[in-house]
Automatic annotation (TrEMBL):
Keyword Flavoprotein tagged: yes
Protein name (record): proline dehydrogenase
Listed InterPro entries: FAD-linked_oxidoreductase-like (IPR029041), PRODH_bac_arc (IPR008219), Proline_DH_dom (IPR002872), Proline_oxidase (IPR015659)
Entry keyword set: FAD, Flavoprotein, Nucleotide-binding, Oxidoreductase, Proline metabolism
Catalysed reaction equations from the record: L-proline + a quinone = (S)-1-pyrroline-5-carboxylate + a quinol + H(+)
Family matches, as Gene3D superfamilies: 3.20.20.220
C-alpha cells in the first residue's frame, strides 16, 4: 500500500510522456499490452469483436490516439474513425465507436475538431451506429461538453462520458438528462481543486450519479470492474423497476472476462471496450496506474518474450 501512490504517479507521468508514446509506436504491442489492446489494425480488432459477439457480448471499438498537434494527423485520425465505422458495418459486428477528441484536433481548434466530429457522427448515422466521445482530463472537460452540445443539435447518435471523481459530475449529469452517457470513476491524475482524492468519496459519488441518471430515465452505461458497484446497481434497478433495456454494464477488453460472461448469462447487456492501434502506450500506462495489480500484465508480457 505504501508504494501504491508513487507507482500510480509514475505510470500517470509515463502516460503523458510524448517521447515515450512516440517510441512505443515502434515497439509494437510489447510489455503485456497485447493482453489489453486488440491488435494494431482495424481488421485484427474486428476479429476480436466478432469473437466477443459470439459469446453474447457487444462492443465498442476505440482507435487509440491522443496528443495530436497537427491538422494532418487529426485529419488522418478522422479518416481512420470513418474507416472503422465502415469496417464495422461491412463485418456485421455488434459494435459502436469510441474516440478521443484530442486525436481529432481538440487542442488545435474547437471548430476544426467539431467539423471532424460531424463527419464521423454523420457516417455513424448513415450506418445506424453510435459514437461515444471519451472524456479526457479536466482541462478538456468543458470543451468536450460544448462540442457534444453542438453535435446534439444535429444528431441523436452521439454521447459522452462523465467521470465521478470530478466535483462537477453531479451537475453535468443533471444538465445531460436524456443523453446516453458512459459513467466511470475516472482514470486521470487530477488536482484536489477539481476532483475527489479519496477512493471512498469517488465510489460514493459514482453510485450517486449512476442512480440520478437512471432515475431521470436516461440510458446509462455503467463502466466498472467493481463487483460491489455492480451488485448495488442490480439491486437499485430491481427495487426501482428500471428495465434492463435502459442500461448496460461496460468493461475493458482483457479484464474480468469471467464476470463479463456471468452478466451476459444473467441477461444484462454487457459491452466490452476494445482498444486497438499503434498509439497504445498512453492507454496502457493508465491501466497500470489504476491498479498496481495490473502491473502483472506487463510482467507476464516481459516473461513471455
Amino acid at each position: 500500500m505504501v508504494l501504491e501512490q508513487p507507482m500510480k504517479l509514475f505510470f500517470m507521468y509515463l502516460s503523458k510522456n510524448k517521447a515515450m508514446n512516440k517510441a512505443a509506436k515502434q515497439w509494437g504491442l510489447k510489455f503485456g499490452a497485447s493482453q489489453v489492446v486488440a491488435g494494431q489494425s482495424v481488421e485484427s480488432a474486428i476479429e476480436k469483436v466478432k469473437e466477443l459477439n459470439e459469446k453474447g457480448l457487444v462492443c465498442t471499438l476505440d482507435h487509440l490516439g491522443e496528443f495530436v498537434d497537427s491538422r494532418e494527423e487529426a485529419l488522418e485520425a478522422t479518416e481512420y474513425c470513418i474507416k472503422t465505422l465502415e469496417a464495422i458495418a461491412a463485418s456485421g459486428a455488434n459494435c459502436n465507436l469510441s474516440l478521443k477528441m484530442t486525436q481529432l484536433g481538440l487542442d488545435i481548434s474547437d471548430e476544426f475538431c467539431l467539423e471532424n466530429m460531424r463527419r464521423i457522427v454523420q457516417t455513424a448515422k448513415d450506418y445506424n451506429n453510435f459514437v461515444r466521445i471519451d472524456m479526457e482530463d479536466h482541462s478538456h472537460c468543458q470543451q468536450t461538453l460544448d462540442i457534444l452540445a453542438a453535435l446534439r443539435k444535429e444528431f441523436d447518435n452521439v454521447g459522452t462520458v462523465i467521470q465521478a471523481y470530478l466535483f462537477r459530475a453531479e451537475q453535468d449529469i443533471a444538465d445531460l438528462k436524456g443523453i446516453s452517457l458512459r459513467l466511470v470513476k475516472g482514470a486521470y491524475k487530477e488536482s484536489a481543486e477539481v476532483a475527489y482524492q479519496d477512493k471512498n468519496q469517488v465510489d460514493a459519488n459514482y453510485l450517486n450519479i449512476i442512480k440520478k441518471h437512471l432515475q431521470s430515465g436516461s440510458y446509462t452505461a455503467i463502466a466498472t470492474h467493481d463487483h460491489q458497484i455492480i451488485a448495488e446497481v442490480k439491486k437499485f434497478t430491481k427495487e426501482n423497476n428500471i428495465p434492463q433495456s435502459q442500461f448496460e454494464f461496460q468493461m475493458l477488453y482483457g479484464f474480468r472476462t469471467n464476470l463479463q460472461l456471468e452478466l451476459v448469462k444473467e441477461g444484462y447487456t454487457t459491452r466490452v471496450y476494445v482498444p486497438f492501434g499503434q498509439d497504445w502506450f498512453g492507454y496502457f500506462m493508465r491501466r497500470m496506474a489504476e491498479r498496481p495489480q495490473n502491473v502483472s500484465f506487463a510482467l507476464r508480457g516481459l516473461i513471455s518474450k
